[in-house]
Design a protein that fits this description.
With 205 residues, the chain is mainly α. It is built from eight helices and two strands.
Length: 205
């Protein structure tokens, strides 16, 4: 097998505004993983009856981490893949042009549905495979360009207090169909995050 096949795919740091509750859960998961890794290494060294030092056991725990204690990046990436596989986002989508890719990488708030979750949003950064980032951005842009075009044609692209009730209702209907990358990520975590299965669900944006 060629050496390239063994290389890990290039990753890209991406920041998203996610539900603060999800961020808190991830913090708790990371702390739990650290405790589990420390205990696993301690038990490995103890059961080796002197064949392994504590440092060697800790190194072995680090090697086992991908399989036993996934990183938060892996949890987020898995959730995004599952969300992108749903009918409304599965595509296939036409790849973004260079200009579209650059615009899609910009941070900041755009036109889209307001967050309806019960908590506040916090920004978190995750290192995701570049191919997944491309798929995420392509889905967000392609699924949104239709309703965004309609909003622009109707002069309803931005919020305004001057809209009539009918115009506001029309705008709300179109905005419901706009998906930012961040909205997709929030929905992905809500539906496919490593949360307890019996947890009370919350609305997603």
């Amino acid at each position: 097998m060629k050496e390239e096949a063994h290389r890990e795919e290039e990753r890209q740091a991406c920041s998203f505004a996610i539900d603060a509750r999800h961020a808190s859960r991830f913090t708790a998961i990371r702390k739990k993983q650290r405790r589990q890794m420390e205990f696993w290494a301690f038990e490995l060294a103890r059961n080796s009856k002197g064949k392994l030092t504590r440092a060697q056991a800790r190194l072995e725990a680090r090697r086992q981490r991908p399989a036993m204690w996934p990183t938060l990046d892996e949890y987020v990436g898995r959730a995004i893949r599952l969300r992108l596989a749903e009918d409304d986002l599965i595509g296939p989508w036409e790849p973004l042009t260079t200009a579209e890719e650059e615009e899609a990488s910009l941070s900041g708030r755009g036109v889209g549905k307001n967050y309806k979750g019960r908590g506040r949003l916090v920004v978190r950064t995750y290192n995701l495979p570049s191919s997944l980032v491309r798929d995420l951005r392509a889905a967000a842009v392609r699924v949104s360009e239709g309703p965004l075009g309609e909003l622009e044609d109707l002069g309803l692209l931005y919020n305004s207090l001057s809209y009539s009730e009918e115009e506001q209702e029309q705008r709300d209907t179109l905005v419901e169909r706009v998906f930012s990358a961040a909205r997709i990520v929030r929905e992905a975590l809500e539906r496919y995050g490593p949360w307890p299965p019996d947890e009370d669900p919350v609305p997603t944006p």
